[in-house]
Design a protein that fits this description.
alpha/beta; Aspartate Aminotransferase, domain 1; 2 domains; 12% strand; binds ligand F0G
Length: 458
C-alpha cells in the first residue's frame, strides 16, 4: 500500500487549550459586544483570527534566540539576518522594522507624496492605509477572475497588464512612485502571482521607468504555488524560485510574522542605495537604529533561521496541504468557499451560506459568531464591517464578497483540529435556514471600525 502523507516534524512542546461550553460562549460573546476581537484568548478553543505571529517556532529557532546579539549597532544577529535575506532575495540592503506595517510606514515615507498613485494587486488594509494617509491612491489592478470565487484560475493574484498599463498611460511617471505586487494576495483569498506575471509586470514597469516593490508577507507560499502550478517550474527548489521572483522587483516590504515564522518582526530589503539612505532616516525616526529597527537581536537571529525553514519545500508542503485539507473537507460538506483554496486561509462565502440574513445585518459577522457559538472557533469577518463607511456619505460600503476567513497558524494545529473545525461549520450549515437575523451596531469608531465595533442581536 502507498504510504499516506505525514508531517516532516514532531511536537516537542504543547500548550493546553480550554474547551468551553456553549452556555459559557454565549455569555462571553454578549460581554464582548458580539465582536470576536474582544474575546480573551482563554475563551477561544481554536484561534483562526489570523496566521500573523501566531505560529510555532522550531527548536532551531528557539536555540537561535539564545545566541541573539543585543548590541545597539552592528549586531551579529543583524549580520546573520542580512546574509539570509541576501541569499533568499538577492537584495543587498536590509532595514529591520518591528512588523510589516512599520516597513510600509518607513518605505512609503521615503517614496510616496500627496496625490500619488500606487497601482497593485489587492493592496492589504494597512498598506492601503499607509498610502491613503499620505493622500495618495491605491489602484487595484488584479485580474477580473479574482472576483469570481468559483473561477479556478491558478494565479488569481495576477496583475492585469492592461489595467496596469492604463494607469501608466493616464498618470505622469512622477505621480507613480512604484507598482506594488502583493505575494500572496491576502485580501483576495491567499491567491498567488505567477512568475510569468511578475516578469511581465517588471518589463512593462521598466518601459515606463516605474519601480516594482513586493509586499512579501507570504512570499514562500507564493513560491510553493509557482512550483506546483506553473509550467516548467516543478523541478526547481523553492529558494531558486524565490530568487527569480525577487529579481523582478526593486525591493520588498515584509511582515516576518507570516513567512518569517516568527511572532513579531518585519523588514525592508532593496538594491537602490538612494532609497536605502532615504528610508534609513525614517527607520531611525520611527523604528530604531538601522541595524535593529525595532527588533531585539534574538528576534533577528530567530528570523534568520525562520526564513530558511519557510523556504524549504517540505515545510511548505505540510503547511499548505493542511489548509487545503480543511478547504476540501468544507467543499465535501457542500459549504461555499473561495476556490482554489488559498495558501494561508480558507474563505467562506457567507452570502451563499446565510442567504436569509440581510446585508444590513452583517451576514459574514453573523456566520463568524455562529461558528464561535457552535465550537469556540474564532475567525475574522472580511465583509461590510471591515469595508467600513464611505468617508463622505457615511453610508455602509458593501463589498462584492462577504467572507469569513479561517486563517491557519503555521505548525500549530493538527489535522484533528481541522476535522473539528469542518464538523463545527457543517453543523452550522445544517441549521442555516434557522439563522434569519443578524446583528446591528450599537457603537462604532470613526475609522477601522471592525476592531472595536460593538453590536447587538438585530
Ligand atoms: N501585508 C500583508 C499582505 C498582510 O497580510 C499584512 C498583515 C501586512 C502587510 C501587515 O503586516 O501585521 O506585520 O504589520 N496581515 C495580518 C492578517 C494582520 O491577519 O492578515 P503586519
Amino acid at each position: 500500500m502507498d504510504l499516506p502523507y505525514a508531517e516532516p516534524f514532531r511536537i516537542k512542546m504543547i500548550e493546553e487549550i480550554y474547551q468551553s461550553t456553549r452556555e459559557e460562549r454565549e455569555k462571553w460573546l454578549k460581554e464582548a459586544n458580539y465582536n470576536l476581537f474582544n474575546l480573551k484568548s482563554s475563551q477561544v478553543f481554536i484561534d483562526l483570527l489570523t496566521d500573523s505571529g501566531t505560529g510555532a517556532m522550531s527548536d532551531r529557532q528557539w536555540g537561535a534566540l539564545m545566541t541573539g546579539d543585543e548590541s545597539y549597532a552592528g549586531s551579529q544577529s543583524f549580520e546573520q539576518l542580512q546574509q539570509t535575506v541576501q541569499n533568499i532575495t538577492g537584495y543587498q540592503y536590509l532595514l529591520p522594522t518591528h512588523q510589516g506595517r512599520a516597513a510600509e510606514n518607513v518605505l512609503f515615507s521615503a517614496l510616496i507624496k500627496d496625490g500619488d498613485i500606487v497601482p497593485g494587486n489587492s493592496h492589504f488594509d494597512t498598506t492601503k492605509g499607509h498610502i491613503e494617509i499620505r493622500k495618495a491612491h491605491a489602484v487595484d489592478c488584479t485580474i477580473d477572475e479574482a472576483f469570481d470565487i468559483n473561477d479556478l484560475h491558478p494565479f488569481k493574484g495576477n496583475i492585469c497588464l492592461k489595467k496596469l498599463e492604463n494607469i501608466y498611460k493616464i498618470y505622469p511617471t512622477e505621480k507613480i512612485p512604484f507598482c506594488l505586487v502583493t505575494i500572496t494576495c491576502n485580501s483576495s483569498g491567499g491567491q498567488p502571482v505567477s512568475l510569468e506575471n511578475m516578469k511581465a509586470v517588471k518589463e512593462l514597469s521598466d518601459r515606463y521607468g516605474i519601480p516594482v516593490f513586493f509586499d512579501s508577507a507570504r512570499f514562500a507560499e507564493n513560491a510553493y504555488f509557482i512550483k506546483k502550478r506553473e509550467k516548467g517550474q516543478e523541478n526547481r527548489s523553492i529558494k531558486d524560485i524565490c530568487k527569480e521572483m525577487f529579481s523582478y522587483g526593486d525591493g520588498m516590504t515584509m511582515s516576518s510574522k507570516k513567512d518569517g515564522l516568527v511572532n513579531i518582526g518585519g523588514f525592508i530589503a532593496l538594491n537602490n542605495k538612494e532609497i536605502f539612505r532615504a528610508a534609513s532616516n525614517f527607520t531611525i525616526i520611527y523604528e530604531g537604529f538601522i541595524t535593529y529597527g525595532g527588533m531585539a537581536g534574538r528576534d533577528m537571529a530567530a528570523l534568520a533561521v525562520g526564513l530558511n525553514e519557510a523556504t524549504e519545500f517540505a515545510y511548505l508542503e505540510a503547511r499548505i496541504s493542511q489548509v487545503e485539507y480543511l478547504g476540501n473537507k468544507l467543499i465535501e460538506y457542500g459549504i461555499p468557499v473561495q476556490k482554489p483554496i488559498g495558501g494561508h486561509a480558507v474563505f467562506i462565502d457567507s452570502l451563499h451560506f446565510l442567504p436569509h440574513v440581510s446585508r444590513e445585518e452583517f451576514p459574514a459577522q453573523t456566520l463568524g459568531l455562529e461558528i464561535y457559538k457552535e465550537a469556540g472557533i474564532r475567525t475574522v469577518e472580511i465583509g461590510t464591517l471591515l469595508a467600513d463607511r464611505d468617508p463622505q456619505t457615511r453610508e455602509n460600503r458593501y463589498p462584492k464578497l462577504e467572507l469569513v476567513r479561517l486563517a491557519i497558524p503555521r505548525r500549530t494545529y493538527t489535522n484533528n483540529h481541522m476535522d473539528y473545525i469542518a464538523a463545527a461549520i457543517k453543523n452550522v450549515y445544517e441549521r442555516r435556514n434557522e439563522i434569519t437575523r443578524g446583528y446591528q451596531i450599537t457603537w462604532e469608531p470613526e475609522i477601522l471600525r471592525h476592531f472595536t465595533v460593538q453590536l447587538e442581536e438585530a
